[in-house]
Request: fold
Amino acid sequence: MPPTSASTSASISPAAPRSRKLHRRFAPIVFAFYMSAIMAFLMCCAIVGANSGLGADYLRRVIQAYVLAMPVAFVCVMVVRPLVGRLVAATVHL
Reply:
């Protein structure tokens, strides 16, 4: 008896796609990276706008400030994270 198309397609199914996600042990670092990236960008936008206005070269000035602010923000989030965790635990019923 020849194989049916349903049984043939089931046996030739492609391998399950590999997950491109990082292991959960990296979650605190990934969280710190995203948090610092977003917050540094938003703060650069606000501070550059407040200090020197929204002129023609506003975006260039924001990116220039962001190049310094992002690594500093990342290190700060990594350093302050344990303290913030303890403050949250002392403040909130977990």
